[in-house]
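My hope is that you will study the protein record below before we discuss the fold together.
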Amino acid sequence: MVSGKGPERRRIPVGILGCSDIARRRFLPALQKARNASLSVIASRDIEKAKRFYPQAEYDVAAYDGLLAGDNVDLVYVSLPNHLHETWVIKALEQGKHVICEKPLAPTFEAVKRMTEYAEQKKLLLCENIMYLHHPRHQIVKNMIASGAIGTVTELRTSFGFMLRDREGFRMTADEGGGSFLDQARYPLSAALFFLAGAAYRFEGRSFFRSGLNVAMKATALTDCNERFTFSIGFEQQYECWYEIIGEKGTLRIDRAYTAPADLASTIQVIAEGHATSVSVPAADHFTLMLERVCDMILQERSYGDLYRDAKRLALLAEQARESCSRVDLGE
């Protein structure tokens, strides 16, 4: 069921599976602005919590299974703890629903492979929410690289870290798919796949653990195109979120690279052949842009093959990075 007929603008009815912080702060406001989607149902294990979760809009409430069994949702946003992603994505696909799933799609490559293969079998959309890449500034950077603004790219450096103050949530619980790696690594790794030409990576690095939980990682890789890739992530530091792309003639840098607020105008800093300049990019809501692209794909009945491919490439790169890093125990 897709609402709207004829020349009227059609909107995909969306259901929210899980009353998460990211759903309330970013996804639901983006959904309210989207030109081709509308909020239909919010599901929670606690129905009363679902009723009061987002007072800015009208919607139905349901338990998880009730949302999936209903005929008033075509697209499900899965925003549950990481260890539940595979189970509920598969259940949504079984009920004929398209799915956007928060990152990571699953903790392992094999799980992502199972999920994408089932989505392909069912001819349904399955999108891992790498939302930041939908902000136009990253394509502008890519176009600048293609134009030769900094010469041949030799290196990508990036860091994403913050002080995680919520010590009780699933991100601090290993059994629920918590830890810095699963929470943060999709950002720098997807940036590498987006900007670098290499297809294969050789990693080395260290993964830091405290009380049995991964709290940071620092790694370096060399691609088969001889590009260097260095990333740092962590839960125990002041906020840092940037990438630099180094070429033979210059450097491009973006701050707040992965977490730009919807109302923040961006600046791409450029140093080329000794001259510093900047390129301004208007504010954009990458959550809204992601959602609109997904809904366009459904409404226009496009192929979803690129989404499956991208999810598997990212999961494989993540597994290679994790397996290549030595473990360092920091104690309690």
